[in-house]
Amino acid sequence: MEKKYALKMDLQTFARSGNYPEPNTQMQDNFSELEAKSIDYTYRFGEDLSKFIEMLGITRQIPVQEGFTITMYTAPEVDLADGDVGEGELIPLSKVTPQPADTKEIKLKKYRKVTTAEAIQRYGRDEAINRTDDALIREVQKGIRDYLYETIKTHGTEQANLNAGTLQGALASAWGALEVLFEDDVITTVAFVNPLDVATEIANKDITLETQFGLRYYTDVTGTMVILNNTIPQGTVYATASDNLQVAYIPAGSEAYQEFNMYTDEFGYIAMAHGQQLETLSVQTVLASGVLIFPERLDGMVKIDIEETVPEA
Questions:
Q1: Residues 6+ apart with CB under 8 A from 144
Q2: Where are the domains of the chain?
Q3: Taking a C-beta distance cutoff of 8 angstroms, is the pair 157, 292 a contact?
Q4: Cis? peptide before 251, omega within 30° of 0
Q5: Count H helices, E strands: the chain?
Q6: With pLDDT > 70 as the criterion, what percentage of the chain qualifies?
Q7: What pLDDT does residue 305 have?
Q8: What residues have CB less than 8 Å from 3, skipping those under 6 apart?
Q9: Which pLDDT score is estimated for 34?
Q10: 188-237 pLDDT per residue, tens
Q11: Closest by alpha carbon to 154, among 294, 4, 309, 311?
Q12: What is the predicted pLDDT for the residue at 308?
């Protein structure tokens, strides 16, 4: 019986005969969007923070190294020598002694978020990655603001409300108290107020709220910048001079960030990168930032109660 032999299939030859790249092959352009995300987020973060700093009237920004210690002060003690000096006589020395009050170490803070392939498949790329990145960025921004608020609430010295029962009276009282504290300087007052107290003001007056860096604010008739924040206790106004505020930050354009191909904003406030984790089939978001907004003088902050304080019996 004659045997028929099947022709052996040359799989390698067959494979080479196709057209390449194969349809739906993931090319470099498919992943360039991850880089674009990092660039976009760092740009927006830097722009927002820069505008917030500008809004507060802060002019001093200090680039520092990780672990740098910031010292905050109260008013310096001045030992002023007698200025009545005769012609040709030796002028006696006056002495100014800074009064350190508190210190704060500025540290690099690092954050990471992972989005799985299943989450992307179920909710879509925009919902799973972009919106959760937005939420992460907002929390980082909130942390920067919260340190400033907590410092002001802790160290603000209590002053009387000249028109008890009104927010306008509290703002005017804060403005006046700071004019006295910084009597030798031309200042702009920045006040922090609970939104519910501002709601009452809106009900009684025609004021317009603006939005910047994830918060709302308006400008008072005294020129005071009024910033709304729900961590401020209702019925209380905290305020300081804008010139009393400084920014210290760890520059994000250093070699440490470049080593990990992280993108930074033009101001150097934040570094960010997106990348794929094939071993877990996930997309990773990593960001790093070290920004501290702080008052130079701790005694340069005031607290005003909106309602009249009842004296203790």
A1: 49, 289, 291, 292, 293
A2: 32-74+104-305
A3: no
A4: no
A5: 8, 16
A6: 87
A7: 94
A8: none
A9: 67
A10: 999 999 999 999 888 877 777 887 766 788 888 888 999 998 889 999 99
A11: 294
A12: 61
The DSSP bridge pattern shows strands 210-212 and 215-219 to be antiparallel
Average pLDDT over residues 3-9: 47
Structure token digits, residue 245: 């505020």
- Say which residues have a Cβ less than 8 Å from residue 246's Cβ, sequence separation at least 6: 58, 60, 61, 62, 293, 294, 295, 296
Handedness of CA 184, 188, 193, 198 (dihedral sign): positive
Sign of the CA dihedral running 68, 73, 78, 79: negative
- Please tell me the pTM assigned to this model: 0.75
What pairing do the DSSP bridges indicate for beta strands 263-264 and 69-79? unpaired
Containing H/E element for 200? helix 195-204
Q: Which one, of 277, 233, 290, lies nearest residue 114 by Cα?
A: 277
129 contact partners, CB below 8 Å, separation of at least 6: 37, 115, 120, 274, 283, 285
How many Cα neighbours within 13 Å face the side chain of 127? Answer: 8
Query: What CA–CA distance (Å, rounded) separates 43 from 210?
Result: 21
pLDDT for the residue numbered 190: 93
Beta strands in the chain (DSSP E): 61-63, 69-79, 95-105, 109-116, 157-159, 189-193, 210-212, 215-219, 225-228, 236-241, 245-249, 263-264, 270-277, 282-289, 291-295, 301-305
* 32-74+104-305: CATH topology: phage-related protein like fold (3.90.1690)
Q: What is the pLDDT of residue 132?
A: 86
pLDDT digit string, tens, across residues 49-106: 888 888 788 888 999 988 889 888 888 889 999 989 999 999 999 999 988 888 889 9
